[in-house]
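Tokens for chain A. Residues wanted.
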């Protein structure tokens, strides 16, 4: 018997959109702070993207987009990380993640590992190409693929586990 999965597509006119976005932004502030306690924890674990994925997949692209824009901006203003020079690339990847996750959730209507793998690869590949265009160095742009594989795995498997845990809510 397959369990029921509730996925939403909230609108900007709904107070719940802003409430959920705020909760996911708080998560995207707290998780990076924890990861940055470890040497290279941020670039390795890619924590700024985790709750953007969860928010966009569970509550829709609009919650994801609010989370994608506000999380790096607030983190940068409060903690200086990410540094301002990295914000354009992180904004691009965050927005791509929100769009890909919202689209995939709407298309699949269920939570699957292949769907999350597709979301993560989509935003990472396109985001890496965009970052390459911005920084002019493929080596620097491909950092997520060089040292961020644990973070991508966290997004796929951790995201799957968390989405499944909140699936019926």
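Reply:
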């Amino acid at each position: 018997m397959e369990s029921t999965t509730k996925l939403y597509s909230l609108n900007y006119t709904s107070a719940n959109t802003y409430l959920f976005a705020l909760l996911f932004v708080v998560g995207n502030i707290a998780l990076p702070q924890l990861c940055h306690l470890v040497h290279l924890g941020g670039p390795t674990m890619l924590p700024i993207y985790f709750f953007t994925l969860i928010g966009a997949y569970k509550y829709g692209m609009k919650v994801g987009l609010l989370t994608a824009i506000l999380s790096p901006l607030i983190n940068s203003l409060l903690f200086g990380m990410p540094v301002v020079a990295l914000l354009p690339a992180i904004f691009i990847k965050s927005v791509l993640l929100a769009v890909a996750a919202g689209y995939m959730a709407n298309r699949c209507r269920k939570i699957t590992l292949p769907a999350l793998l597709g979301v993560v690869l989509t935003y990472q590949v396109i985001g890496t190409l965009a970052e390459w265009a911005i920084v002019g160095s493929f080596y620097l742009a491909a950092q997520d693929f060089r040292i961020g594989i644990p973070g991508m795995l966290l997004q796929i498997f951790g995201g799957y586990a968390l989405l499944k845990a909140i699936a019926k809510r």
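The chain has one domain: 15-165. The chain has a mean pLDDT of 95.
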